[in-house]
Design brief:
The chain has one domain: Nuclear Transport Factor 2, Chain: A. About 30% of the residues lie in helices and about 60% in strands. It has three helices and six strands, in the order ααββαββββ. The longest helix has 18 residues. The radius of gyration is 14 Å and the shape is globular.
Length: about 120
């Protein structure tokens, strides 16, 4: 299987974990150094996992809707796509339409997401 296909498959499994809101499973898909960047600033792995474990952040749906691009550089893959998602933050429903860029790295033979950046579409 091509590396790009491995990352696509891993990203699908990761999205399923996110919509399943399983904090431990989600944490296992992330590099320890993972950070998320958006217009509000930087969120760490520990913060995100705490929000999901506590129910403060709940994901319902996630879908790639266009513009998918994967660029491989050795054992690193940069994934960019337009995505939509729904969920709730502090009990308030949300729906997003965003551009996402993620960096995937191979750690001890397993793919992990190391960085996520989102921008409103």
């Amino acid at each position: 299987m091509a590396v790009e296909d491995e990352v696509r498959a891993f990203a699908a499994v990761r999205d399923a974990a996110l919509t399943g809101n399983d904090a431990a499973l989600i944490a296992g898909h992330m590099a320890e150094e993972w950070v998320y960047v958006d217009a509000q600033g930087v969120t760490t792995k520990a913060e995100l996992i705490d929000w999901i474990a506590s129910g403060r952040l709940v994901h319902h749906t996630m879908a790639v809707v266009g513009g998918e691009r994967l660029a491989r550089i050795g054992d690193t893959v940069v994934f960019t796509a337009r995505v939509t998602s729904t969920g709730a933050w502090d009990g308030v429903p949300y729906a997003t339409d965003e551009w996402i860029s993620e960096v995937y790295v191979r750690v001890e033979g397993q793919w992990r997401v190391a960085f996520t950046q989102k921008t409103d579409a």
